[in-house]
Amino acid sequence: MINSSKKYSILVLDCIGDTKLKIASLSAQYQKDGFVSAVDVVSAETALKHRQSLELAESKVGPLHYMSKIHTILQSPFELATNTLLLDVVEACIGPDILLYNVTYIIKEAHSKSHVSWHQDLTYWGFDCDDQISAWLALSPATMQSGCMKMLPGSHHQGRVEHQITDDTSNVLYGGQTIPEVDEQKAVLCELNPGQASFHHGWTKHASTPNISDDRRIGLSFQYIAPHVKQVNKKGDGALLVRGQDRYGYYDKDIVAVSDLDPVAMKYQSILQHRYETIAKAK
Prior knowledge:
The protein has one domain (19-281): Sandwich (Jelly Rolls). It is built from five helices and eleven strands. The protein has helices at 19-33, 44-61, 75-81, 84-94, 263-281, and strands at residues 35-40, 98-108, 116-119, 132-138, 149-151, 188-190, 196-200, 206-208, 217-225, 238-243, 252-253. The strands form two sheets. It has a seven-stranded mixed sheet. The chain has a four-stranded antiparallel sheet with strand order 3-8-5-6, with no helix packed on it. Helix 1 (19-33) packs across helix 4 (84-94). The longest helix is centred in the C-terminal third of the chain and has 19 residues, at 263-281.
């Protein structure tokens, strides 16, 4: 059973008070636990605006769940990915030079059986080191009922562990990968209000359960890396400098959307999608 009574401090980042001290405390907590949760990034009203942008796009082209590099076809995801407060937290955790590697909507429909088994993100991405951080921004309530993420504090210190392949069709991960024998008693729920974000390390063990609520659970996931991180699974991978300097030049420059759902951009994104899937499935 998950320890749902265990709560982490909500770290509000605003223009009032000692913001630098709050971010330093957040970074220390991240280094210790491998994640932080319920960080206020944008207002609920702003989150709703971005949800509406997503759902307008869905009404035109269909589901956008798990589409890689979504910021190459929609403007809203890139606006959020470059939010100053979001990048301030990222900088505190991985340094001042930041590449945006990927942006993806992760959506669980109401009363969906879809779930995510216990796993580590860095098993998929083909990086040569772990100077990486994921941010997950809620555009709708992420609660126990809607299948919010749960994480194992400190599990990132163990490094990579073995994953088993399963045939669970309701598991949204490629191949249904899962880490066996996880101690659920140590897991912590990361519930988020719209506009709040969690941040986690690529080796942090995490999972989520089905959405049994009446609303969609909509999250926007961002992956950031330091420029010295190399892609070893495939040549020609892409990223985009969003803060600081890139002194290495390991990645092609992703093309950001200048309008929504441009046909040329849509074709470009389909190529990027195939490339991402090839990297994620590489042994």
